[in-house]
Design goal:
The complex is a heterodimer of chains A (185) and B (394). Chain A starts with a strand and ends with a helix. Chain A is built from six helices and six strands. A six-stranded mixed beta sheet of chain A has the order 2-3-1-4-5-6, covered by helices on one side. By secondary structure, chain A is α/β, with parallel strands linked by helices. Chain A has a single domain, classed as Pyruvate-ferredoxin oxidoreductase, PFOR, domain III (Pyruvate-ferredoxin Oxidoreductase, domain 3, 3-Layer(aba) Sandwich), CATH 3.40.920.10. In chain B, helix 1 runs parallel beside helix 2, helix 1 packs parallel to helix 7 and helix 10 packs across helix 13. Chain B has two domains: 243 residues, Rossmann fold; 132 residues, Rossmann fold (3-Layer(aba) Sandwich), CATH 3.40.50.920. The relative contact order of chain B is 0.11. Chain B has a seven-stranded mixed beta sheet with strand order 3-2-4-5-7-6-12, with helices on both faces. Chain B has a six-stranded mixed beta sheet with strand order 9-11-10-13-14-15, with helices on both faces. With 394 residues, chain B is of the alpha/beta class. The chains are: A alpha/beta (185), B alpha/beta (394). Strand 2 of chain A pairs antiparallel with strand 8 of chain B.
Chain lengths: 185, 394
């Protein structure tokens, strides 16, 4: 079972993307998945968590996610000891940033950086980075195919924004994939 | 054709209600039930559910209005949680006494004070004596299936009792998972239109038991005698549903790897899923552990519990509740059944998950270890708190 933790602020789409990944895995790939937010009150701008569990077999575990395989940070101002804890030994942390060097000093886990805000501003005209970070995650993890992610976006997002987000997820995917191949990520 | 959708537990409830086609929905929103009633309201607004939606001003009114609708023969639905259920409490025995088959979703959430949002079972278990059937669900699919089954069970002329379908707040209401949505035609075939003689009818005037000074006792004897037959109806509907939709839930109780188990843990609701993982792991290590998923609290599965208790050396009961001054409520119920045996197994009451406190796989393994040690003859505290942050002395 793979466990993914998403960090964002209320209104940035951190839970939406946790859900889209879950939908891509289960509805479009026949895997099993759960997607859930941090439980409790919701406030715009406040730190929020999203979780996705993905497995080849039925997932019955309903306890809190403890140790993650991937942590995805939509907003780098959130990074601190809390965000960088609860990581499995070979976990990867994906950060929306143009300068990952300070974060590499804070953890011995692998950090993959992408300037998702720049990409979102270019295509959406708004700093909503959830689907860009999804593309980056898929490039690193291969948890689901890019095609399944785009089907989930078309099925789970409003038609007016779905196509642009399909473009973003693909661009981010290619960008990170390319950097991984070139050893720059 | 059924179809696969990725929805939360709340949304699964709403989809089930749309398929069940109630005539009247009356509800008041409360976290974590809110999304369910919002979606149902949307369905009525967009015409995909042809029903009257009453936006009432409180839970007390929600249940009262549902009862009024049921009294003229309408199929009805309402939903609540926590303090909302307690605010309805006055009306619950009115409904069950009048034998109206209202179906209600309850999103299990703890009770104030301290005020909190997350899930435990203190709300619904405080209403065990209200005359309602109570079922507890493990995931979103079971919740959808149980809403549909609930109408079939409740409206059965042999039953005529209201039913509360419980799902854990947040853990189920706010978790998204893939659910198979049955086709409308299939649901229509499973759930025929509701007809009853127990209704106000100008052409056939009769009392619907609002006052019965001298016959009161007999009314409730009849209610109890009928309720004793409900387990067989539940088993029957479970088989019928499984044959039609391919999902069986084993009726009153699901026994998971209990056949040769030395010790078993009794659970309610979503924590059952976590315990399954632990049972699988401990089985691989050679421990004879099993899991008893108590699906119904009312009527209580006396026969099944007696059967299990007669075969094992120790039973643990995991209560996400406490009757302050005594013990866990589920434990009390299991205990009074087990007392019928000549020699009863060892018992431990684990109290955990209050106010939504996590019950981890490690916590669950700890419970099984306590039970295995008890079975080997070690002395154990009868009531144990799980994953608590302060000391206690039993």
């Amino acid at each position: 079972m793979y466990e993914i933790r998403w960090h964002g602020r209320g209104g940035q789409g951190g839970f939406t993307v946790a859900r889209l990944l879950g939908m891509a895995a289960s509805v479009f790939e026949g895997q099993h998945s759960l997607a859930f937010p941090s439980f409790g009150p919701e406030r715009r701008g406040a730190p929020v968590l999203g979780f996705t569990r993905i497995s080849e077999t039925r997932i019955t575990d309903r306890s809190m996610v403890d140790q993650c395989d991937y942590v995805v940070v939509l907003d780098e101002t959130l990074i601190g000891p809390g965000v960088l804890s609860g990581l499995k030994e070979n976990a990867v942390v994906l950060v929306n940033t143009c300068d990952p060097e300070p974060y590499r000093k804070m953890t011995d886990r692998k950090i993959v950086a992408i300037d998702a805000t720049d990409l979102a501003m270019e295509i959406l005209g708004r700093p909503i980075t959830n689907t860009a970070m999804l593309g980056a995650l898929l490039a690193v993890s291969g948890l689901v195919s890019l095609k399944s992610a785009q089907e989930a976006i078309r099925s789970g997002m409003k038609a007016s924004i779905a196509e642009k987000n399909c473009i973003i997820v693909e661009k981010a995917y290619s960008l990170v994939k390319g950097e991984l191949i070139n050893g720059q990520a | 054709m059924s179809k696969k959708i990725f929805v939360s537990g709340d949304e699964a409830v709403a989809e089930a209600v749309r398929l069940a086609k109630p005539h009247v929905i009356s509800a008041y929103p409360i976290t974590p039930q809110t999304v369910a009633v919002e979606r149902i309201s949307d369905f009525v607004e967009d015409g995909t559910l042809k029903a009257e939606y009453l936006h009432v001003e409180s839970e007390h009114s929600a249940m009262s209005a549902a009862m009024g609708a049921a009294a003229v023969g309408a199929r009805t639905f309402t939903a609540t949680s926590s303090q909302g259920l307690l605010y309805m409490s006055e009306v619950l025995p009115y409904v069950s006494g009048a034998r109206f088959p209202i179906v209600m979703m309850n999103a299990n959430r703890t009770l104030a004070t301290p005020w909190a949002l997350l899930s435990d079972h203190r709300d619904s278990l405080s209403q065990l004596d209200s005359g309602w059937i109570q079922v507890y669900c493990e995931d979103a699919q079971e919740t959808l299936d149980m809403i549909l089954q609930a109408y079939r069970i409740s409206e059965d002329p042999r039953v005529m009792a209201p039913m509360m379908v419980n799902l854990d707040g947040f853990v189920l209401t706010h978790t998204y998972e893939m659910v198979e949505l049955p086709a409308q035609a299939e649901v229509d075939a499973f759930l025929p239109a509701y007809t009853t003689i127990n209704r106000m009818d100008l052409d056939d005037p009769k009392t619907v038991c609002y006052a019965a000074m001298n016959d009161y006792m007999e009314f409730h004897m009849k209610q109890e005698l009928d309720m004793r037959k409900v387990p067989s109806v539940i088993e029957e509907v479970d088989r019928l549903y499984g044959d039609k939709f391919g999902r069986y839930y084993d009726g009153m109780v699901e026994q998971y790897l209990c056949d040769d188990a030395e010790v078993v843990l009794v659970t309610l609701g979503s924590v059952t899923g976590t315990a399954r993982v632990v049972v699988d792991a401990m089985r691989k290590e050679g421990h004879k552990v099993g899991l008893v998923k108590l699906r119904y609290m009312r009527p209580f599965p006396r026969e099944e519990i007696l059967d299990i208790a007669s075969r094992v050396r120790a039973i643990g009961v995991l209560d996400k509740d406490i009757s302050v001054g005594y013990e866990g409520i589920v434990f009390t119920n299991v205990n009074s059944t087990v007392a019928d045996l000549e020699t009863s197994p060892g018992r431990i009451n684990f109290i955990g998950g209050l106010g939504g406190r996590n019950i981890s796989k490690e916590n669950t393994r700890g419970m099984f270890n306590e039970l295995l040690e008890l079975a080997r003859g070690e002395k154990k505290e009868k009531i144990q708190f799980v994953n608590a942050r302060c000391e206690y002395h039993g």
